[in-house]
Design goal:
The protein is α/β, with parallel strands linked by helices. It contains eleven helices and ten strands.
Length: about 300
């Protein structure tokens, strides 16, 4: 009985522990890596979405670490990672950074989980290096819909990107007077969030200015969507190279339409989609228990 109590206490302590902070280098940028442990177990890497940060995975990571050695990175321009010179935030750059991290971990084939932009990065990597990926999960991360401006002609895409960058050059980050004000903005972006989750995400996703105001950590230039890397036909070819079993989650209350007949989803030969009721774009927050149940079963050998 005493041994059981010690074991339960050990489990609670482990669940409450902060991940270990490391940094790695890619493309001459210093990028943040969070290591949730545990040594000796198969590796799994979590990749967050745009305007987000790695600590949004805390609840997922603390569950999956029962079975895997879990890592999560802050993408360039996000969280505690360096901002890229200019506006170098295309899919290619992000996949390059993930590649550098996976070469450091050096355990292939590996399991990858990504949300939104992170899901796109995961699927691109799995298509470029199919033999290096054991399982892949993408939460609403296949790319912009067919009607989106990123699917236009090359001249249109380049013109839009140039104009977006020039517009961002004229902007400054919006400050928030208090943490509560920033939390309110977080909940406005995702009404499904509880107060506890919204505060956690905000605390890890903001910095204090010298005047006491609060700003988001991400670089505003990540908003300038690259004219390359999002084109539907390119993604179809890339995703068609994926050999790993792949699971796609989609929230039925998401702002993004369910890609029922999307050729990118159909191109994934060994893929399956789970449509999640009462969930928006952030399925792993909105329906955490369901996500963990399905993901854990899928990732198992």
């Amino acid at each position: 009985m005493a041994a059981q109590r010690r074991s339960a206490l050990h489990d609670r302590i482990l669940a409450a522990m902060e991940p270990i902070s490391h940094f790695f280098y890619s493309d001459r940028l210093k990028l943040q890596l969070w290591d949730y442990g545990q040594d000796g177990k198969p590796s799994l890497v979590l990749v967050h979405g745009g305007l987000d940060h790695a600590r949004n995975w805390d609840w997922v990571a603390r569950s999956l670490r029962e079975h895997y050695h879990v890592y999560a990175l802050d993408l360039r321009g996000h969280g505690n990672s360096a901002w890229a010179p200019g506006a170098m935030y295309g899919i290619a750059e992000h996949v390059l950074d993930l590649s550098a991290l996976l070469d450091i971990i050096d355990e292939f084939p590996i399991r990858l989980v990504g949300h939104s932009l992170g899901g796109m990065i995961v699927l691109h990597y799995a298509g470029i290096y199919p033999a290096r990926v054991a399982k892949a999960i993408s939460i609403e991360g296949i790319g912009f819909p067919a009607a989106h401006r990123t699917q236009g002609t090359a001249s249109q895409r380049l013109r839009t990107w140039i104009e977006n960058v020039r517009d961002i050059e004229k902007r400054t980050q919006k400050p928030y007077p208090t943490l509560d004000a920033a939390v309110a903005r977080m909940k406005e972006a995702n009404p499904h969030l509880t107060d506890e989750v919204a505060r956690h995400l905000t605390r890890h996703g903001t910095n204090w200015e010298s005047d006491g105001s609060i700003v988001w950590k991400f670089d505003n230039y990540v908003r300038a969507i690259s004219p390359y890397g999002h084109h539907l036909l390119d993604a179809v070819e890339l995703f068609g190279q994926i050999t790993a079993p792949t699971l796609v989650f989609w929230g039925l209350e998401s702002f993004a339409p369910v890609p029922e007949n999307d050729p990118r989803v159909q191109a994934i030969r060994n893929g399956r989609m789970i449509k999640v009721p009462k969930a928006g774009h952030w399925v792993h927050h909105d329906q955490l228990d369901l996500f963990l149940k399905e993901a854990t079963e899928f990732l198992r050998d």
